[in-house]
Amino acid sequence: MSDSPERISLAGRLRNNFLTGLIICAPLAITVWLTFTFIDWADSWVTPYIPQRYDPQYYFNITIPGTGLVVAVLFITIIGFLGKNLIGRSIVNFGESILHRMPLIRTIYRSVKQILETVLKEQSTSFKKCGLIEFPSPGMWALVFISGDASGEIAVKLNQDGEEMVGVFMPPTPVPTAGFLMFVPKSKIVMLDMTPEEGAKLLISGGLIAPEYAPKPAPVPVLPAPDNLSASK
């Protein structure tokens, strides 16, 4: 009976060591796996289109991971460089004019282009802030990502009372691959200082990984000068 506490203590230590090792190894293993999976996916798409004389695998007779990804990045960069000058812009406009004449293709192309332009635009404020809204009922708060002010028809229809509406995206926990797009009055949103990356960690972990927060010190009030000093001057 006296050995029972020692055995329980040893089992507890082994369990804690295993969990600590899992926390250290699992993120690293998943990151490496995702990285190589993405590289293999890019290679499988691009490598077959590389001419044989430009393919380093032809000369070394070995598979070089990342060749297709590097070629894709260089190709996209060159296309972007050429698309900025007059000749390249004319070619792009001519290609887009052909796509816009195709009934189904033009809808897909315009939608994808608009999404990419919104996400990649340097001046865009999409998902640069986090906030809290009362959901699903008063007194219960949900984490949301601010997508920007309402615009277009939505702004005209919803801003009739003079209160500015803001678009927010509320993803589920723990896999934020889907969610709800809602338009909420700006006064109903509690803005947070945490970054979207910190908000994503909080969301994915189910609230276990909360970012550190140091409240900002209150501003020191500036007292007016005494009347006797101002009178003497």
Automatic annotation (TrEMBL):
Keywords: Membrane, Transmembrane, Transmembrane helix. InterPro entries: COV1-like. It comes from the Bacteria. Coiled coil: none annotated. The chain crosses the membrane at residues 21-39, 59-82. The keyword Transmembrane helix applies. This is Putative membrane protein. It comes from Neorhizobium alkalisoli. The lineage of its organism: Bacteria, Pseudomonadati, Pseudomonadota, Alphaproteobacteria, Hyphomicrobiales.
